[in-house]
Amino acid sequence: MNRIRKTALSAVLAAGASFGLAAPMQAEEIKFGLLQDFTAVYTFVTGEYNQGQRDYLTLINEEGGVEGHTFTAIVRDTGNQPQRGIEAYNRAKEEGAILFDFLSTPVSAAILDQANADQRVVITPAHGRGDASDGTVFPYIFPAMATYWAQAANLIDHIKQHDGGLDGKKIAIVHIDSPFGREPLPILDELAGQEGFEYRAFPYASPGNEQSAAWSEVRRYRPDHVLIWGAGGGQAVSVRTAIQNGIAPEQIYSVIWLAETDAANVGPQMTGVKRFEASASGTDHPIIQRIQEKVIEPGKGAGDAANVGTSYYNLGVATMAISVEAARLALEDGGPLTGETLKAGFERVADYDAEGLMPAVTFSEQDHQGGGAGRVSQWDGSAWVPVSDWHAAFPEIVRAEIEESAAHYGSGN
Amino acid sequence: MFYRLSGTYHTTYESDRKLWKIPADRWQVIAVLVLAVAAPFLVSPLYLGSYVLPWVIWSAAALSLTLLMGMAGQLHFGFAAVMAIGAYSSIHLVRFGVPFEIALILSGLIAAGIGTVFGAAALRVKGLYLVMATLAMQYLVDWVVVNVPAISGGAHATLRTPAVSFLFVDVSSLASRYWLALGWAVLLTLFFLNVKRTSFGRALVAIRDKDFAAAVIGVDPFRTKMMAFFTSSFMGGVTGAILAYCYYRAVTPEQFGFDVSIQLVAMVLVGGLGSVIGSYLGAGFVLLAPIFLTNFIAGMAGAGWIPVSQNFLSHLPLIIYGAMIIGFLLFEPLGLAKIYDNIRKYFLVWPFRHAKS
After folding, report:
1. Which residue in B44, B294, B315, B318 has the most chain A C-beta atoms within 10 A of its own C-beta, making it the best mutation to test that interface?
2. Contact A331/A66 with Cβ under 8 angstroms?
3. Who among A84, A106, A186 is closest to B291 (CB)?
4. Which residues face A35 on adjacent strands?
5. Nearest by Cα to B23 from B37, B39, B10, B4
6. How many CB atoms lie within 10 A of CB B331?
7. For the CA atoms of A43, A45, A48, A54, what is the dihedral angle to 10 degrees?
8. Residue B61 and residue B232 in contact, taking contact as beta carbons nearer than 8 Å
């Protein structure tokens, strides 16, 4: 008798438990594939960036998700190898991921067409093809932040507005000898004609551990300003070699890839160097504060707490803030969340600035860059201090470049 | 017992010259071939597209390289560049209007031509010095591809493969791309197995073992070395084109970088120099082991077994992978092919202990 009662009781309990679980189970788990390069080329950024992405998703889950839906990050290392990226993409796709971030140009390039065919959203913030900003040619690819073209335009605009104008000035661009390094050149060509400055490009060989040959030529060129266009360890080498060649830190402007680690590597002489940024750094932002309070302090962070607030950490937070906002808008429309509805959600994002963490972005069916705004900040010896406001510079020139290149892609390349 | 050697006598030259003399071996090969051909119906698209297809193509690449490194003994550390030449020329040729079938052969010839020019260094230098010469080829080809937009495909250096058909069959679905790649790998395998028994194959082996001794017995080192580079580069060039059309379908310079060359050398070494089955096993190991290990470790971490940071989690598979390579090479320096051979010899006479050779 006792045993029967026990069995009945446990059956009732089990039924109750499953019933109780059934209600939240209806809210789906939204899966994002963060299949990035933790071990090869992009290691300088991936650790902090990915940590920021996952901490933001944890924050959203801690705050109850989006209408009860929670987010899961599928994280895998691809080692920057296309064939491993393809495997990871296919697997995560089978597991139900609807959004991907590879943070690797070769891997993104290998997946672009497949993702468009599979109707899965791929965000390519600060990497990948700039022309994917043309949503008519790349329906499922979202650069989602200022492309390298927009970054170059923004830096040039800063020189024009704040650092003595452009007319008759000489600008040197010292870049890594790769497609990425050469990317800003067409924008500079265009702007040089329009604004009346001259520029010259000085390539150095990848990976950029040794750049003295390029910089001694730069010294002979006597530029008024220098843009440095590289990534990873080569950036610190650029700044150090520039200063050795008599270029003042204030004359140096960097692409987005210059962060706290590089400043630590260069040392105190880095003070004064400027860079483009697509998201604010530091912990003094509402979202970062909430991450500190609800994710880091309870011990749910995805990595070293010291990384919170670094440039790349906040960049990762910003990418996921945009993605979660898109998912929220897509769910608002009702219906299940698929790659297709998530794309529509992205295209409804308007004037979203992640509570001030980044410039307001607005996507449309045509514009997957979100406006291409950013700002310039300057290293003051301990932190990056913004020296301009969030704005998009020369948007029509950047857009023309995007459309021309996208049309080229549409015709086969 | 398994191989049933008793009663198998080769009484004619034809039967003694067969590629697989023992019926059991023949049946194994037929079974593997049937499974390989039927793979699109047997495995899910995930496994076909991300595991089997790249494995078949890289095996073909390893076969091409092992002809040069294993049979002819000429080290080549720039083989990815040879494949790049094949991939880029095939795409540009098809865009120019050349039919795909002819473009494949022409791209192989172009790769063979350029590969032979760099191979000419082998006439003067050997060993590590030849490694340097072929490394130079890798970097030169990389540099040219990256710096000539007409080759690489413009600002973003991505070249998409045009839609093609092979012998009137449209090569766009996953299965058709797989069968084309498989056909090429089978062709290379048959070529490789047969070339070992030709005068050319024996000349290659003679050159490998001692080139001036080969010259003494009447093998022309100049001609043989050039032919080795030409043949191997032709095979590598077509494999590069197959890799572009059947697998990546959008070619970027990184797909043929220096690290890919090293991976190819690793495939050949881990598999076993100059061995056909070694090429398949080596390619499978180098290509798939990191993927399996990454998924396995991620699965364990997901189940909460190893609570560590993502950074360590990503490097752990590499640590294990490195240890496995060292382990295999310590356990059997002649590679995975020799391990297979040991197992086969054990079962050849099982339940008895000793095989003849």
Report:
1. B294
2. yes
3. A84
4. A76
5. B4
6. 9
7. -90
8. no
Instruction: Compute the Cα dihedral for A339, A345, A351, A353 and give only its sign.
Output: negative
Which residues of chain B are within 8 Å of residue A306 when distances are taken between CB atoms? Answer: none
Q: Are A316 and A52 in contact (CB under 8 A)?
A: yes
The alpha-carbon gap from A80 to the nearest alpha carbon of chain B, in Å, equals 9
Is B49 in contact with A186 (Cβ distance < 8 A)? no
Give the minimum alpha-carbon distance from A301 to chain B in angstroms, rounded to a whole number: 10
pLDDT in tens, chain A (413 residues): 455 554 444 444 444 444 434 333 356 799 999 999 999 889 999 999 999 999 999 999 999 999 889 999 999 999 999 999 999 999 999 999 999 999 998 899 899 999 999 999 999 999 888 899 999 999 999 999 999 999 999 999 999 999 988 999 999 999 998 888 999 999 999 999 999 999 999 999 888 999 999 999 999 999 999 999 999 889 999 999 999 999 999 999 999 999 999 999 999 999 999 999 999 999 999 999 999 999 999 999 888 899 999 999 999 999 999 999 999 999 988 778 999 999 999 999 999 999 999 999 999 999 999 999 999 999 999 999 999 999 999 999 999 999 999 998 887 76
DSSP A306: G
Cβ neighbours of A237 (radius 10 Å): 23
Pick from A359, A369, A348: nearest CA to A314: A359
Q: What ipTM did this prediction achieve?
A: 0.91
Max Cα–Cα distance, chain B, nearest Å: 67
Residues of B in contact with A303 (CB under 8 A): 309-311
Chain B CB within 8 Å of residue A94 CB: yes
Shortest distance, CA A44 to any CA of chain B (angstroms): 12
Domains of chain A, CATH where assigned: 2-146+281-372 (3.40.50.2300), 148-277+376-393 (3.40.50.2300)
Please state, in angstroms and rounded to a whole number, the distance separating the CA atoms of residues A84 and A62.
32
DSSP, collapsed to helix, strand or coil, labels residue A201 as: strand
Exposed, middle or buried by CB within 10 Å (0-12, 13-18, 19+), for A170? middle
User: Which residues lie closer than 8 Å to A325 by C-beta, 6 or more apart?
Assistant: A349, A352, A354
Q: Do A413 and B309 touch (CB under 8 A)?
A: no
CB pairs under 8 A between A and B: 107
In three-state secondary structure terms, A302 is coil
Q: Is A76 on the interface with B (CB under 8 A)?
A: yes
Nearest chain B alpha carbon to A80 = B254
Residues in chain B: 357
| Set of chain A residues whose Cβ sits within 8 Å of the Cβ of B160 | 113, 409, 412-413
Residue B88 CA to residue A313 CA, distance in Å, equals 38
Angle in degrees, 0-180, between the axes of helices B276-302 and B336-349, rounded to the nearest 10: 100
Q: Write out chain B in H/E/C secondary structure.
A: CCCCCCCCCCCCHHHHCCCCCCHHHHHHHHHHHHHHHHHHHHCCHHHHHHHHHHHHHHHHHHHHHHHHHHHCCCCCCCHHHHHHHHHHHHHHHHHHCCCHHHHHHHHHHHHHHHHHHHHHHHHCCCCHHHHHHHHHHHHHHHHHHHHCHHHHCCCCCCEECCCCEECCEECCCHHHHHHHHHHHHHHHHHHHHHHCCCHHHHHHHHHHHCHHHHHHCCCCHHHHHHHHHHHHHHHHHHHHHHHHHHHHCEECHHHHCHHHHHHHHHHHHHHCCCCHHHHHHHHHHHHHHHHHHHHHHHHHHHCCCCCCCHHHHHHHHHHHHHHHHHHHHHHCCCCHHHHHHHHHHHHHHCCCCCCCC
Residues in Cβ contact with B325 at an 8 Å cutoff, skipping those fewer than 6 apart: B266, B270
